[in-house]
Design brief:
- The chain is of the alpha/beta class and about 240 residues long.
- Helices cover about 30% and strands about 20% of the residues.
- It has 7 helices and 7 strands, in the order H-E-E-H-E-E-H-E-H-E-H-E-H-H.
- The protein has a 7-stranded mixed β-sheet with strand order 1-3-4-2-5-6-7, with helices on both faces.
- The structure holds guanosine-5'-triphosphate and magnesium ion.
- The site of guanosine-5'-triphosphate has 23 residues, from helix 2.
Length: about 240
């Protein structure tokens, strides 16, 4: 009996908009545990995480973005399915460093975040969203340390790049690369960085390439025609629902 040919996956950038909300939880322990590879999106409060997620997915209000810092206080899970298979998940994490919450709440959020980043089994990669004007603050570095135990890839988005001139953007990108190189013996080794703006849409293709790599799916027509997997890239053991 001949095998039934399976439909190939379309390039991710053409269908990631089909992603849908799965669930929210205040505590990592309350999230569904089994699932496809998860890419978490973390960053300081108000850095632009939800806006980045919306642009990545080409959706206006998948995640709520807001002028009020601290808006995202829950862990929000989004799922992308192709036919009956779950391909990947995106996780919008609560922002850290929001000044206007009391210390107990802040400590609780930080504990949840640390717990999630250190022990969430299905994570395959981390996107850290940083305001291009204030990247690599102490809390960002702390987050990168928490995640470092996993030895997994990280991509930094220097967002709100539209607030700077081209020259300033280039300087900020070079400075970010230097900050990463300073940690070449730990998380820096696995970290890439790019400019991003939810307003001008720059950087979308680059971050989609990363997500596609981490989910092990084709990113664009070009990557389908020219597979360019480097040795050691891609995450083994992606979990599937079925
Ligand atoms: N100019 C500009 N503004 C942006 C960009 N991304 C986000 N913003 C604005 O920054 C503010 C915060 O954006 P959010 O996407 O809600 O940020 P967040 O990190 O999800 O915030 P919390 O969930 O509160 O931690 C909003 O007013 C956005 O419109 C960008 O690329 N350029
Ligand atoms: Mg948010």
């Amino acid at each position: 009996m001949s095998a039934i040919p399976q439909n190939p996956l379309p390039p991710l950038k053409d269908w990631i908009h089909q992603i849908s909300f799965l669930t929210s939880a205040a505590r990592a322990a309350d999230l569904p545990s089994l699932g496809a590879g998860e890419v978490a999106i973390a960053g300081r409060s108000n850095a632009g995480k939800s806006s980045a997620l919306n642009l990545i997915c080409n959706r206006r209000r998948l995640a709520f973005s807001s002028k009020t810092p601290g808006r995202t206080q829950l862990i929000n899970l989004f799922t992308l399915q192709h036919q009956d298979t779950e391909i990947g998940r995106l996780v919008d994490l609560p922002g850290y460093g929001y000044a206007a919450v009391d210390r107990t709440t802040k400590a609780r959020w930080q504990r949840e975040l640390a717990n999630f980043l250190e022990s969430r089994i299905s994570l395959v990669g981390l996107i850290v969203v940083m305001d291009i004007r204030h990247p690599f603050g102490p809390l960002d570095l702390q987050l990168l340390q928490w995640f470092d135990r996993r030895q997994q890839p990280i991509h930094v988005l220097l967002t709100k790049a539209d607030k700077l001139t081209r020259n300033e953007q280039a300087r900020a990108l070079a400075a970010a690369k230097r900050s990463i190189a300073e940690h070449a013996n730990s998380w820096g080794e696995r970290t890439s960085v790019s400019l991003f703006s939810a307003t001008t849409r720059i950087g979308r293709d680059e971050v989609l390439e990363k997500i596609a790599q981490w989910w092990q799916v084709p990113a664009s027509q070009e990557t389908m025609e020219k597979p360019k997997k480097k040795p050691g890239e891609g995450i083994a053991g992606r979990e599937r629902l079925n």
